[in-house]
Fold this sequence. Notes:
The complex is a heterodimer of chains A (168) and B (595). By secondary structure, chain A is of the alpha+beta class. Chain A has a single domain, classed as Alpha-Beta Complex (Sulfite Oxidase, Chain A, domain 2). Chain A is built from five helices and ten strands. A five-stranded mixed beta sheet of chain A has the order 2-1-10-5-6. In chain A, strands 3, 4, 7, 8 and 9 form a five-stranded antiparallel beta sheet that branches. The longest helix of chain A is centred in the first third of the chain and has 21 residues. With 595 residues, chain B is an alpha/beta fold. Chain B has three domains: 194 residues, Four Helix Bundle (Hemerythrin (Met), subunit A); 213 residues, Heat Shock Protein 90; 108 residues, Rossmann fold, CATH 3.40.50. Chain B is built from 19 helices and 13 strands. In chain B, helix 18 links the parallel strand 12 and strand 13. The chains are: A alpha+beta (168), B alpha/beta (595).
Amino acid sequence: MKFIGLIISALAALGVALNAAAEQPPQFNTLTITGAISSAEDAPVKVDLATLKTLPVEQIVTHNPWEEGLHTYTGFNPVDLLEQLDAEGDVLRVTAFNQYITEIPLSDFAEHKAIIAYEMDYRPITVRNKGPFIVIYDFDNNAMLRNEAYYGRSIWQIESIEVLDSGD
Amino acid sequence: MATVYPSRLQLPRSRRWLTYLMVLCAGVLAILAFMLVPLTENSMRLNARQVFESSRWNAMQLQLQSYRLMNYISDLEEADMPLNGNAYFQYDLVLSRVDLLRDGEIGNHIRSFSNGRATRLLNIIAGELELISLNLEHLENGRIDQAAIIMDRLRALDTQITDFVVIVNQGANRYVTAQREQLNLQLERLEYIGILLTLVAALLALFALKSSYDLRSLFRRNGQLEDDIRHLQKEKSDVIARIIAELKPNLITMTGWSSSALQSDDEWHRQSHLEQLSDLSGHLLTQVDSYHDLILIESGQFVPQHTEGELKSHIEYSVNAMKQQLLAQNIRLMCFFDPRLVQSFEADFKRLHEILTMLLGQLSQHCPNAAMLVHVRPSALPILETRKGELAKDTRMVQISIRDRGQGLPSNVQQGLRSNPHNPGNSIISQIHNIGVGFTLSQYLISTLGGELHFSSSTENGTEMWVDLPMKTVANVYPAKRSKVGTIAILDNQITSDDIFEIGLGDASYGIEPMTHEHLLKPEVTSGFTPYHAVLLADQRILDVEALEALLALQSHDVKLFATESIRRQHPELNISAIFTLPLTETQLEQLICA
């Protein structure tokens, strides 16, 4: 009986959790941009999901090591965002909610057509499912990207982006 | 002349093996190279699989996020209410790690760690966390008392999370160790294959080097052969030019005689020209046959054609075939046979005819106005050991001696005749250059028929040639012994005492003796005790008075006189018993004696 009760409780908790995820508070769907942004005068810029969705939409259909199967990722190219923000950098210092930090050259988005996805299979990406923002590379169509360097740059649960100018 | 033998066209055994080895090496090389593909692919896959790192990283991230959640919960105060989903957010961060460790590549990977203990632990952790979600809901609804309960539950979960991290770490270590071992093994294999590849490539390089040397020598030999072919073509054209040069005079003569015969009203002349034409055309046919035989000998396709026949008739036929040429050179040819010879032989008479006509034709060019004697007799030469097996038991060597009292052969011809035709340095074409087509053909035909050709030549004594040929006796029956009934003297200054022999005419035997004009005038010759049965006036010069008197004296002692029509006309005072024509053969002489 105790076991059945445990299962029922678990299912109930799962339902609550899923519900909670679907109704994710808006403050977690916001991307904070800092760094070499001339228009912001060193103040952080907060961009919400609705704004991000106004940017040109990019799509990548690929496999990746963290998910089973083929998925369609929809998102934007940070180059477009930085153009709107009048940012001058060439490297993005991306920080996740768990404080994991990685640096991504802007050329990855220009040349390898990487994107920052906000939808997976046409649904918003929850925090639990590594959302709300994930950097996605087209691993299926470019074998050169299938290595640790690019896996490491595929950061998820993105909290903020700092635009850096490496000076190169 | 260089000959390309079929065996030289095939690769020698060593070269064949070399080629097989090269093919084998190329095959091994291809197999080894092919083996490299899956091995390298496998090694790359092994090297690229960093999933163990991810499992370790995510396990630690799980622990870290759980501490962060605990930290967040423990710091909550009444003033923080309402939480507005912040508690759920922190909770989701923890659960996102749980999901990562349960699903995907990492989930599959850790499933085998500690016989599934890691997965079981993760399921318990996930279950516990799901239960905490109920308390979280209350907390989000403003019940701060739930914080303590959540903290207790999280503290209770901490040991299991720590165990899980330890198990994942150990499993990842074991996994990476196994992967490394496998990778090392693959690398070792790659190393062996690399060594093998190097060895095979080195071998292949050696074979290629050897082949390049062979190829170079082949090109060199090919170039040499091309030069030889060009040289041969030039020599062939030279030979054809020589053949044409030999045939042309006879053809021109024939044309001349044909025209004369057509234009002449005199029946005797016409008949005479037609006879000459017939003789000469026969001779031309023999020449053409001879050239054909020469080509057959050169190409190694010569086959003797043995037939049975009477030797005397064949030789006399050959001698008579040369009549026109001999008369043109004013050569007095006489042909005699040794009575010890059997009559019939099995031999290649067609080629014997070619040999004799060619030799007589060649010799006649060097003895104009001379006497020439053909004497056929048993040869003292043995049959060569090497030829005994090929020839039958009844084979005998027969010698045909041709002697002239001419000016002898030129030294280059003598030198060429002395050289062995089968000497590797000698070739038919070079011999033709040295001694002409006729002598070359005779030399090669005699040699090919298993015979030998010897000669002696000087300006003082003229030339003597001995042709020794093996002939098979048809019936081992020798002629019956004939009794000598007399001696026939040949009046010719060029017939010397060396030419004394006996011949058989019918049932009787006659001695043949030379008689010079000086000898004719000796009293013992013209006396009544003369031993001569007949005197044959071979010399065609006009006889002087003394000679005429001597001959008349002989005639008075019943010595018969045989002469040519020309002598008879010049000396009507002589009572010529019978007329003979040159060349004189034994058959003709027998008819003279009988007459």
